[in-house]
Amino acid sequence: MTARTTESTVTFAHQFNLSHLDGPLPAGTYRLVVVDEEVPGLSFIAYRRSYTMLHVPAVSAYAGKSQVFTVDKDELEAALRADQANYTRQEEA
User: Fold this and answer.
1) DSSP string for residues in 32-90
2) Residue 53: which domain range?
3) In the chain, pLDDT over 90 holds for what percent of residues?
4) Which of 29, 31, 50, 62 has its CB 3.0 to 4.6 Å from that of 55, i.e. a possible disulfide?
5) For residue 71, pLDDT beyond 90
């Protein structure tokens, strides 16, 4: 089975929580790796997301011990939306 990997970054303006982590993570820009696997048996090439990995600590943080966590795509997107909403409310105040 063929897989493709996409790397990007996500930026949080505030600390945030994800259910699989022991506590909140600080604001910052985090490296994100998405792995998609090819859907077999189709007459065209298609992929589905297999997993999403978040690299901790943030890119700008001290480069000591690092960890990689598998995170739920929907939960991560919800945390990013909540962070953006919080950022927008602070700018309006």
Assistant:
1) EEEEEEE-TT-SS--EEEEEEEEEES-TTS-SSS-EEEEE-HHHHHHHHHHHHHHHHHH
2) 3-92
3) 70
4) 31
5) yes
Dist CA 47 CA 52 (whole Å): 14
Total count of domains within the chain: 1
Any idea which residue has 């939960």 for tokens?
A: 75
User: What's the rounded mean pLDDT across residues 13-24?
Assistant: 91
C-alpha–C-alpha distance, residues 73 and 51, integer Å: 8
Average pLDDT, the chain: 89
Q: Give yes or no for a contact between 25 and 75, defined as CB atoms under 8 angstroms apart.
A: no
